[in-house]
Amino acid sequence: MTARRFDWDRILAVVLISPSILAIAIFVYAFIAWTGWASVLKWNDLLPLQAPPQFPSLKVFPPKAPLAKSPGDWLPLDNYIRLIQSDQRFQKDLENTVVFTVLFIGACLVIGLLLATLLDQKIRGEGLFRGIYLFPMSVSFIVTGVAWRWVLTPGTPQSGAVGINLLFDKVGLGFLKNGWYTDPDIGIKAVVIAAAWQMAGYTMALYLAGLRGISEDLREAARVDGANEWQVFRHIILPLLQPVTLSAVIILGHISLKIFDLISSMTGPGAGFSTDVPAYYLFDTVFRGNHFARGAAIAIILLLMVSVLVIPYLIYSSRTEVEQ
Residue 80: CB partners within 8 Å, gap ≥ 6? Predict the structure, then answer.
């Protein structure tokens, strides 16, 4: 009876989770496979892709002899090669992504750790400050982009300074005024400010949980041995926070690599594609240009970039669980 009942329990469990497994198989892995298939086809013929009129010298896809005659013909790696070697917009997107990822992760880690350390001092009104710091995460990147687009609008000579530039004028810091996201030299760095404002509070919550998990006895033992507060922080707390830091880097890196909504609502591709990113280029390519194979190739490259972060983390997590 026990074995028979156990079999029925297993069958019931399989039946209950089968819809989820089927949905994931179709809407995740099957679509990934279809995207990979589309990326190696000649499916770029619906509309010609020309260089934007404001950038006449920009060669998006230099003219080449056709490698296939019909939309269904194979172009094994041609779409990828052209994106990486010949598409100057995509090359600029990759550069922007690297700059954005490094600055965004660095800013969130530093600000989050600083705020968490301050809150860990058992200050009065801690709950209020936690709520204030976490509030930006409650809004979407679309709302963040719209708000920071106004804050960082530089203004014009006719209308004068607005947003943060106006604030600098009022407090006598006019030398700090600049074009922010409208300046090609700053561009993506201005977007980092908005993104870090939204996610620094989340990073703070991760670090605060990690700090509260460190035994006070370890800190007291270090102090008894003669360590000052900085040495306790550097040699005791920071090493114990490494798993939290790794998790934060993975989460923030995943967000930064596929960022789209913040760019879309705040800046668009920007002057000279100074704020463009692969996800926004993917949107332009597929939904505005109908170049499906090229868009699929961009999507697969994005997937590979995210995998570089996620897969090592999953391997590390599985090994850590086995060791424990």
Answer: 39, 297, 300, 301
Mean pLDDT of 230-243: 89
User: What are the tokens at 213?
Assistant: 């998990």
Q: How far apart are alpha carbons 104 and 108 in whole angstroms?
A: 6
Q: Which residue has the higher pLDDT, 213 or 45?
A: 213
Q: Three-state SS string across the chain, please?
A: CHHHHHHHHHHHHHHHHHHHHHHHHHHHHHHHHHHHHHCCECCCCCCCCCCCCCCCCCCCCCCCCCCCCCCCCECCCHHHHHHHHCCHHHHHHHHHHHHHHHHHHHHHHHHHHHHHHHHCCCCCCHHHHHHHHHHHHHCCHHHHHHHHHHHCCCCECCCECCHHHHHHHHCCCHHHCCCHHHCCCCCHHHHHHHHHHHHHHHHHHHHHHHHHCCCHHHHHHHHHCCCCHHHHHHHHHHHHCHHHHHHHHHHHHHHHHCCCHHHHHHCCCCHHHCCCCHHHHHHHHHHHCCCHHHHHHHHHHHHHHHHHHHHHHHHHHHHHHHHC
126 phi, psi to nearest 5 deg:
-60, -40
Overall fold of domain 88-323: MetI-like fold (1.10.3720)
Angle, helices 188-212 vs 242-257, to 10°: value is 150
pLDDT tens figures, 90-148: 999 999 999 999 999 999 999 999 999 999 888 888 888 888 998 998 889 999 999 99
Residue 117, C-beta contacts closer than 8 angstroms, at least 6 positions apart: 207, 211, 233
**What are the extents of the domains in the chain?**
88-323
